[in-house]
Fold Helix-turn-helix domain-containing protein.
Amino acid sequence: MKDLISAKDNRKYRIVETLYFAKKACTIQYLAKKNNISIRSTKTYLDEIKSQLDDIGGVIDTSSKGVFMKLPFYIGIDFFQQQLIRNSLGFKMLELLFFNQTLTSRELEEQLFVSMSSLSRLTSQLKDLLVNHGLVLDSRPYQIKGDEFLIRKFYTKYFHEAYPQTEWPFKNVSEDTLNKLVQSFQLSDSMRIEALNFNKIRLFLAINMFREERGNSLLLTPLKNKGLSSDDFQNTEIKIELWLKSLSMSEDFILKYGKVFSYIYCYYYGSYIKSDKKNHLKYENLDKITNSLEYLSHVFDLPSDNHCHLVHKLDELMTLYSYYNSKTGLNNYLVFRPRDYSLLDIFQNSYPLFYKLAEQELIKVCKNRALTTDQINLEELMFFLLSKWEQLSLHLYNNFSRCRILLHSHINYQHGNNVKALLDSKLEDSLTIELFHKPLISESTLKSYDFDILVSTGTLFLDIEQPIVFMPIKADNESFKPLLSVVQKIKQKHKYMANQKISKRLNEISKPIAE
């Protein structure tokens, strides 16, 4: 849907983005080259950006060193992304069609301030783009048609990207009611509440209420045949009704929205519904995901966990892929890749072996469900695996970059504790620091400690394998450099050894078992 952004607005945004993330002033030449824009156009766009920043208290500073953008502390890059989307004619039209399903060509021309020919071109562009999302644009009258679930998912992504959390776009849906709903959204003990995006849930529920109010039923989607028994759904309806009553919702509200909320819960959290009538295939699918996660845990020395929430979430995503052929429609965003997805880049760069093997396992599980790579959103699957695997970053960091420091004070334990507090404040959280607690230090007394580096406030001559680093009493930034240098070498060595160990384990697993 990025094609709905005009070429000019897109170029201006790229300049803003470059300035936003720049750590120093950027020359005009750099801005032009980086964003593939002429120097003349770059200067023109900068003048326009300056004018736009005035409204939010931002400025563009120009000096001999180049251009630097200053913004109020509360303004983030998402502000510019939201403005870019909401200033787009295409997205303006999509929003108008959401709130009004009976607009004529004449009404759209007037509300968008475009000519008949411009509206015709815009309509053709939208039709082509919406096909990728499994949707159709009808023009008699103008409205979005298609599977109701995909329509609601599409607009959830739109409103989530186009509006800040502090701005409520639905005049006919009570924001207070939605806030009350999401703040109590703890229907299942098995659900991991801390992993939910509450604003996105709030928008999704609001869109569901709005669509239901206007006669667009969710109950006609393919997902109604998800495999849940009638008892499962009835039990969910009872749970939803009790939930709404506990929030003092009116009988009319429960009658209007109880059933659709039950369907939403079944769509997203059906795996958590306890029932003896679950089919055998469902259990098989869950077992295959569990086996893949256990395999990854074994290969990378990760703590064993039942991964209940993660297994169910991956299963739900794969189930959605099996129902719909449009992976674009099931994508997690429309225009801007979520900032959360930077987690993918971090893992891919820091733990490429784990990332690659995890991808292979997810693809293998999907193939077992007759899902090809063209039908799945591998990036979304990987994001959920990495973000919802409990303490995965910490465990991988410890396995690949662990560094244990043993601290010895030449004075006394209290002095050692003070130096330890200083080191804790200066060094990374992932480094473990243990205080040497014996009266005298020697090769023999060190044997009861497990460490990678010995740090001492006094000079030591010891015949040990681990490096010894002197820690001066005056601990300024310069004095930490020798220790940081040794820490980096230890980490690199540990990472190399961990990779060697994992590669050896993978080779052993892949060898055929002797007859």
Q: What stands out?
A: Residues 85-272 form one domain.
